[in-house]
């Protein structure tokens, strides 16, 4: 979430990225010797967020700063709720700045960090439509994970380290940060007490050379099935480590429990990153069905739905398509499993009992179908607007 045009997602969601294009169509140059027509991607820029891990020796200093951030957040929370209760006035970030002015020196925070906290508080208050938000707790079982917002220009790459608020912070530089100019960002703590530096930078557009289009059907047997027959196998990362997780929980080994959860998350992300990157490099248009994990999570399949990670895969495809300059669509997938992708008749399996049927033959045209591949082909046709309404698949 952003409080302003130049403020990156300061809560540090690793899957959040902001895309901004500049000079989309550069001027063409003419000369007596020829005509130059540059590519549409020439001179285009985009903003993306880089995430690097901060070395553990700086954890104590970052924790101290995080406690100060929590103090400022709670102060603004009380200030805002009192203004609403006593005067009926919703304070803006600009109205809150005089109340925190000069406190950065006493709290050991950068002055612009105080402004970022106020901007983020107002944005969250508006989002949740509440006069008072939850307190940020610095201790106890429900301790809030550390968060230190950084405004544009408040952090720099200096002497091979990140320099912020008079402190040099060593990081595991896997991106070559010296080649980038930092914009807004934040320092964030994960559940295992490890700190990361998330920063928005401006990079050149890297257009994909992929051609054609592909439809994707999301499911549980296979996480994703493409219209060309390619699949992302459901490796069931959570199910595989469920016994180890139960053992650690019975032993009340919280450190081991957090490590297992982190391993499950990393394995799932790795598989989905590789799959989504391969599709973005190979195709010029990607169409996905609108299956809702939120609705299915209320059923008996909740654990399997969350283990599949549909929402995360769609998020990866969306921002990677935006960065590569290709088309990404989400279409309604009603009747895509039942409809024959060849003739359009609704002759496929239906209902709960039909879920066990993985292959079927169309009674109208006699074509043999794989259940998931057929659905992916129908989704691709919907993305292109080729399915007629009379066959049972409404045109969106």
UniProtKB/TrEMBL annotation:
Keyword terms: DNA recombination, DNA-binding, Endonuclease, Hydrolase, Nuclease, Transposition
Organism superkingdom: Bacteria
Annotated ranges, domain Cas12f1-like TNB: 310-379
Keyword Hydrolase part of the UniProt annotation: yes
Record has Cytoplasm as a keyword: no
GO molecular function list: endonuclease activity
Domain Probable transposase IS891/IS1136/IS1341: 197-297
Pfam families to which the protein is assigned, alphabetical: Cas12f1-like_TNB, OrfB_IS605
PANTHER family: RNA-GUIDED DNA ENDONUCLEASE INSQ-RELATED, TRANSPOSASE
Protein family (similarity comment): In the N-terminal section; belongs to the transposase 2 family. In the C-terminal section; belongs to the transposase 35 family.
Name of the molecule in the record: RNA-guided endonuclease InsQ/TnpB family protein
Annotated organism of origin: Vreelandella lionensis
